[in-house]
Amino acid sequence: MNNETSFEIFLNHHDEEAWSATLATLQRSIHEVDRNATQIWFAFYPLPLYRALEQADDRAKLAAQLLLLGDYELKNQIDTSHRFLYGHRFWPEVKKAIEQHADQSTEGGVGCGVSGVGTSVLHPTPNTQHPISSQTKVYATSLADQILELARAVAEESKVDESLLVGITAVAFMTVQQAGLLAFKRAPGAVKIDRKHAKKSPEQVLRERAKDDSQGLLGFLRTVNKQWTVTWDENDSRANYKLRELQDLAWGAASDQSRDWKAIDPRRVEGPIPVECRSASCGTCWVGVLGGAEKLADVGAREGKKIKEFGYIDTAEPKPVIRLACQAQAQGAVSIVIPPWNGQFGKYLRSLKEGDDQSLRAVSHPESEPKTETIQ
Ligand code: FES
User: Fold this and answer.
1) pLDDT tens across 81-120, in order?
2) Cα(308)–Cα(347) distance, rounded to whole angstroms?
3) Are residues 147 and 185 in the same domain?
4) Does residue 120 sit in the same domain as residue 265?
5) Fewer Cβ neighbours under 10 Å: the N or C end of the chain?
6) How far is CA 360 from CA 53, 131, 357, in A?
7) CA angle (249 as vertex; 244, 253 as ends), nearest 5
8) Which CATH number fits the domain that encloses residue 328?
9) Given ligand 1 and candidates 267, 268, 282, which is best to mutate, with the most ligand atoms within 8 Å of its CB?
10) Which of 134, 165, 194 represents a domain boundary (last residue)?
């Protein structure tokens, strides 16, 4: 029996394209302190991967096939996955507001109280010429509206800047979509950073991210001997290590023996960043760059090709917010965040998408010849 609420049904009408459009709409409303962080969070928890696992006949077999290691399921991390967003500080308020919104939506129909959202969202008029794009547009507009409206309501009640809540509210919507409303409600809704860090202002966090290490009085004469700090958890004062100019992020992390890394995460064989091949072949070492992306060397041809194959990011940007730590060389201090899992799923998801596109083409042009494609 399907026990999905109206709110969950509404959310489940949103695919990757609809979410991308939604995030593009929200981007300018998100405070600078959380702009990269929000983008990183959505890369860490990709909807198409979640859906592929949900729809698999044998979930464990597919997870093994995609070499998934670590904790990739949002339902296990409802209160913690977004600890690196500044907006995490307001998680209890945002979570409560979403639960109320979901209950009201269920009682009064999806999207009640949000202009332009109604039953047409649940039952859009089929458009035989451009079925996906027209639906995507309708859904994206209404989802972005709901996120903004909810962020505004929480901001007014909590007396904080609305822009600090937009990213975390979008995260909360996606968390409901992937974890389910019941599990979402069952999570305690706690703030998972200590008071000292929670008290920092967004400006202070931005200042700290922008700061570079002093190289001493004659620092301008130094070349390869320059040292840079890599912060890998902004909410832990001990979570940083040093590396030399043009060393890659993983190389520097390996010298950090301050904790029993394997006990914390078996993928961490040396230092805080999980590594395996050190040659852009395994995808173990992916990280998000919260601050200082511009101080990392450009993505090389191999890193760019492999990071897309792994499924982590698909972009031609030379300095994106997702990098392979074993390839990204530092030319300044950076702040990164380490995802709790890794895998190789890009090719598989593309093959699923190409299969779907072919089916849609067959529906739109039934007279055209079916094509045979190899799915790897
Ligand atoms: S350690 Fe294998 S890709 Fe970086």
Assistant:
1) 999 999 999 999 999 999 999 998 776 554 444 433 333 3
2) 8
3) yes
4) no
5) N
6) 22, 9, 5
7) 85
8) 3.10.20.30
9) 282
10) 194
